[in-house]
């Protein structure tokens, strides 16, 4: 096994899927894109990238049945606070796992994310590595274990923007497409459903 494979195998995935989907009007996590719903698609891509464990951070009232194979469900009882509460819930679930070297934080509603892209950002070693799209940096992003304490201190709905602002980044074509509205979903279906 190469160093890169060892590194990827020791990287967790924290999938942010606890949003209320207010603009879409239906739980986006369960919206279908081809043969999969968005949470299934994101879990599959994380597993293909050899990330482990794969944690899906969900609100208490979201029923995902069956759970995607390979996903551990983590309930965020503070989802109304915003993205930071989901990041904290994921990191707390990782606390007992001493073998991981970092985690990739990603959203369930970015259909442009591929396993290849996740592998590229997971190779950041000891540095934060973000994704670049639309002239900015964002998630998916890799965070080494050394910054977990800073992530645990996050509050509100801003997520980890300050931590990735000065990070190196890997281009993610169409990374600006996240599914918040029916129009976004229509665009995603045109791009990613054959």
The domain tally reads 1
CATH topology: Spore Coat Polysaccharide Biosynthesis Protein SpsA, Chain A
**pLDDT < 50 stretches:** 1-9
Question: Shape from CA axes?
Answer: globular
Name the CATH class: Alpha Beta
Give the overall average pLDDT. 87
Comma- or semicolon-separated keywords:
globular, 194 residues, single chain, 7 helices, Spore Coat Polysaccharide Biosynthesis Protein SpsA, Chain A, alpha/beta, two-stranded antiparallel ribbon
Account of the 3D structure:
With 194 residues, the chain is an alpha/beta fold. It has a single domain (3-192), classed as Spore Coat Polysaccharide Biosynthesis Protein SpsA, Chain A. Helices cover 30% and strands 23% of the residues. It has seven helices and nine strands. The chain has helices at 3-9, 38-48, 83-94, 115-122, 148-152, 161-164, 182-192; strands at 11-16, 32-33, 36-37, 54-58, 71-75, 102-107, 129-133, 136-144, 168-171. Strands 5-4-1-6-8-7-9 form a seven-stranded mixed sheet, with helices on both faces. Strand 2 and strand 3 (36-37) form a beta hairpin. The model is unreliable at 1-9 (pLDDT under 50).
């Amino acid at each position: 096994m190469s160093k890169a494979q060892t590194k990827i195998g020791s990287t967790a995935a924290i999938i942010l899927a606890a949003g209320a989907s207010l603009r879409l009007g239906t739980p986006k996590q369960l919206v279908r894109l081809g043969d999969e719903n968005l949470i299934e698609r994101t879990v599959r891509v994380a597993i293909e990238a050899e990330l482990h464990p794969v944690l899906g951070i969900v609100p208490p009232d979201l029923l995902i049945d069956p759970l995607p194979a390979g996903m551990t469900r983590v309930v965020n009882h503070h989802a109304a606070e915003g993205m930071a509460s989901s990041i904290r819930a994921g990191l707390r679930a990782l606390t007992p796992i001493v073998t991981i070297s970092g985690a990739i934080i990603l959203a369930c509603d970015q259909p442009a994310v591929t396993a290849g892209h996740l592998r590229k950002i997971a190779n950041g070693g000891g540095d934060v590595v973000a994704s670049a799209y639309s002239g900015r940096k964002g998630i998916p992003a890799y965070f080494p274990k050394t910054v977990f304490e800073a992530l645990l201190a996050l509050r509100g709905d801003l997520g980890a923007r300050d931590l990735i602002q000065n990070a190196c980044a890997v281009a993610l074509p169409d990374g600006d497409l996240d599914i918040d509205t029916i129009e976004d979903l229509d665009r995603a279906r045109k791009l990613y459903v054959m």
